[in-house]
Design a protein that fits this description.
The complex is a heterodimer of chains A (about 220) and B (about 110).
Chain A: E1 4-10, H1 14-25, E2 30-35, H2 42-48, E3 52-55, H3 62-75, E4 80-83, H4 95-103, E5 109-113, H5 123-140, E6 152-155, H6 156-160, H7 171-182, E7 186-190, H8 197-202, H9 208-221
Parallel strand pairs in A: 1-2, 1-4, 2-3, 5-7
Antiparallel strand pairs in A: 4-6, 5-6
Helix pairs in contact in A: 1-2
Chain B: H1 6-27, H2 33-51, H3 53-63, H4 68-113
Helix pairs in contact in B: 1-2, 2-3, 3-4
The chains are: A alpha/beta (about 220), B mainly alpha (about 110).
């Protein structure tokens, strides 16, 4: 369909972004890479692979980059938007599964879950994420199995209900809050997350979770 | 009241200079009058407390705190915490303004390339 967009927030992903974009382009025409002021060749790599590239002139964090991409896609008449990580951990093969509930009008938010999709999640990562899910259930009240997966799909209406204010990593919990506040239907679908050596090295460390939780709670408290 | 101790004299001069500088800044519109008066009032209160320590002792006793110096210490800590908090909130607000600016530049630049 014409109105499908993929938003890929990227920061220093020059070595992988090209193949991620090329992969996505086989499934979806409109791929937007939001470059969060990378110091490497991310912009050129993404552009030559056929992505529309939005450039943050100052690094603002993944949450900020996501919102920039959502704004741009909505402004260009997107009917459905998928968010996708730049580090190669997600698979373009999962796009049809994510978009189906949106087109069948079953949900405005489709959340990819690595825990129901048979991904081989490393033990320590699994523990951190499980704790994070308990945190999410307590704070947002959503009953999900994976709250911190960057692979999601939004209907136009769903994307319009999201306004990410937490610029760094706490946006995942913030999105959950806003999904609940919107009252629109959401569904979880199983997706595969590949823990490549590269993705693991670039990914969040468990200790960062404390910082993220602080950002999130403070953000809820102070506007 | 006897002769001023050297600490009292120095403190009094510093307070007077700060109050004068604050009011001068407000007169030249470098800061607004409300802020200037609040800041000047704080220094005047400090000067009074230094000239007449018996006042802080009386307030401290009223509150069940042993020494006047302790009362001043507690108030100072509390004031600093409130100050840090205000600065933190302002910093967060500034960060979100920067983000909105960066976002609108990113979108505008992309639209110019189209």
């Amino acid at each position: 369909m014409a109105g499908e967009w993929v938003v890929v927030p990227a920061y220093n992903e020059a070595t992988v972004i090209g193949s991620v974009v090329a992969d996505l382009r086989t499934k979806i025409g409109k791929v937007v890479v939001v470059d969060d002021c990378s110091g490497d060749g991310t912009v050129d790599a993404a552009r030559s692979a056929g992505a529309i590239v939005l450039k943050h002139v100052i690094n603002r964090g993944q949450g900020a980059a996501l919102q920039t991409g959502l704004d741009y896609a909505l402004r260009h008449g997107a009917t459905a938007i998928v968010t996708f990580d730049a580090d190669g951990q997600h698979s373009a093969e999962d796009l049809p599964v994510l978009l189906a509930p949106v087109y069948e009008h079953r949900a405005d938010f489709v959340l990819g879950s690595r825990f129901t999709g048979g991904s081989d999640v490393p033990a320590l990562r699994r523990l951190t994420l499980k704790l994070a899910i308990i945190f999410t259930r307590l704070t947002s009240g959503l009953d999900v199995t994976d709250a911190h997966n960057g692979l999601r799909a939004f209907s136009r209406r769903g994307a319009q209900a999201i306004h990410i204010r937490l610029d760094r990593m706490a946006h995942a919990s913030e999105i959950m809050d806003q999904i609940r506040a919107s009252g629109l239907p959401y569904v979880e679908v199983p997706v595969r997350v590949r823990y490549t050596e590269y993705a693991r090295r670039k990914g969040q460390r468990g200790v960062h979770a404390i910082r993220v939780a602080f950002d999130y709670l403070f953000g809820r408290w102070v506007r | 009241m006897g002769a001023l101790t050297s600490f009292q004299s120095i403190a009094l001069i510093v307070a007077a200079v700060v109050v004068a500088a604050t009011l001068a800044a407000a007169a030249s519109h470098a800061v607004d009058w409300r802020t200037a008066f609040a800041w000047a009032a704080l220094w005047i209160v400090a000067a009074i407390a230094i000239l007449r320590p018996s006042i802080t002792v009386a307030i401290a006793h009223f509150l069940g705190i042993g020494r006047g110096a302790d009362l001043v210490f507690y108030c100072g800590i509390l004031g600093m915490l409130l100050g840090f908090f205000a600065v933190y909130v302002r910093m967060k607000r500034l960060e979100s303004q920067i983000t909105r600016l960066v976002r609108s530049i990113a979108i505008r630049d992309a639209q110019e390339r189209e």
